[in-house]
UniProtKB/TrEMBL annotation:
PANTHER family: PROTEIN KINASE-LIKE DOMAIN-CONTAINING (PTHR11012)
Protein name per the record: CHK kinase-like domain-containing protein
SMART domains the record matches: CHK
Source species, domain of life: Bacteria
SUPFAM superfamilies recorded: Protein kinase-like (PK-like)
Chain ranges of the CHK kinase-like domain: 112-274
Length: 331
């Protein structure tokens, strides 16, 4: 098995390779993301290496380790490799993400060698945002969703990615559903899932669009996304709901949600029309996904109430949106 340093050296025809730092350990001990300095004959640069090891079931920080969770995680890394090697080139320049430089899968190890976004100017990270700062991400999501919109897709689409995107998709989370408290939300889980899957306007969703997975440019008017382990079929508001819930307080959501949804849908319509789609189609997609926003929110709330019901995201605001979705299912 090649060491990371030797793999990078061969892939980039480097003179020398040095590990600078571990940027992040992967969830549950599956590996690491590290920064390396690469010296070539006439220049040097930094690169990012994602090293994944899956020879055994690691421990989960919340006690959720199981064969199913291990299989889900292993598949997620294969999906990420498929994304970068088969799908990423379809995205326009405005849908920025790290460029894949090379990759290797051998035995129980995978290497993904990527551009260092910090070196490309995307060096700002946020845990929370002012509501105005969300606009650049909402525009990124709108562009991403418009590019991959595919009404009534074939059953084998999207090849190599998740048939249902997002890390909280019901079919992959039976353990969390099982431990939910009995009640209306638990009983409605399947109906929430069906409502999202039955939308005639499917696209690719990022599937883990939290604010931590967006790298902001130094001037904050551009953004790039990382971590495509859960990219797959879905409706755009699944990403929008998860993103807004990850970066805004309950008070910010109360005050600005409708405005931010308008920002997203306006940009989505603009992108679709710019791609040659009709204004009627853009309007139909907008209306359908706007109707599904509370459903998408409640679908994540369903996961949260099984995974960690004491989580800070379980707010009164979130419960109200969820209640609205449950009423919507009955109407």
């Amino acid at each position: 098995m090649l060491t990371p340093e030797l793999f990078i050296k061969r892939a980039l025809q480097a003179v020398a390779v040095q590990k600078i730092e571990v940027v992040q350990s992967l969830w549950s001990g599956y590996g690491e993301i590290a920064r390396y300095q690469v010296k070539q004959a006439a220049s040097s640069m930094n690169v990012i290496m994602k090293t994944i090891r899956w020879q055994e079931i690691p421990s989960h920080p919340r006690g959720w380790q199981s064969k199913l969770s291990h299989q889900r995680k292993v598949h997620s890394y294969q999906v990420e490799a498929n994304w970068y090697t088969r799908w990423a080139d379809q995205c326009a320049e405005q849908v920025r993400m790290p460029r894949l430089l090379d990759h290797l899968q051998q035995d129980d190890v995978m290497y993904l060698l990527m551009e260092d976004l910090d070196d490309s100017g995307f060096f700002v990270r946020h845990d929370q945002l002012a509501y105005e700062q969300t606009v650049v991400v909402l525009h990124w999501l709108a562009s991403f969703h418009s590019i991959h919109l595919i009404p009534q897709p074939n059953t084998d689409w999207p090849e190599g990615l998740w048939k249902n995107g997002s890390y909280w998709h019901l079919a992959t989370r039976p353990d969390e559903w099982q431990v939910m408290a009995e009640g209306e939300l638990k009983q409605a889980a399947t109906d929430l899932d069906k409502a999202l899957r039955r939308s005639p306007y499917q696209t690719l969703i990022h599937g883990d669009a939290k604010v931590a997975n967006f790298c902001f440019h130094g001037n904050e008017d551009l953004v790039a996304a990382v971590d495509f382990q859960y990219v797959g079929k879905g409706v755009g508001v699944q990403d929008v709901a998860y993103f807004l819930g990850s970066c805004l307080t309950e008070e910010q959501l109360e005050m600005h949600l409708e405005y931010l949804l308008d920002v997203y849908f306006t940009e989505l319509s603009r992108c679709l029309i710019a791609m040659g789609e009709s204004s009627d189609l853009a309007e139909s997609v907008t209306q359908d996904w706007y109707r599904l926003f509370p459903i998408a929110w409640a679908d994540f709330q369903r996961f949260l109430m099984g995974w960690c019901p004491t989580h800070h995201k379980n707010t009164a605001f979130s419960r109200r949106i969820t209640e609205r979705a449950l009423q919507q299912l009955q109407s």
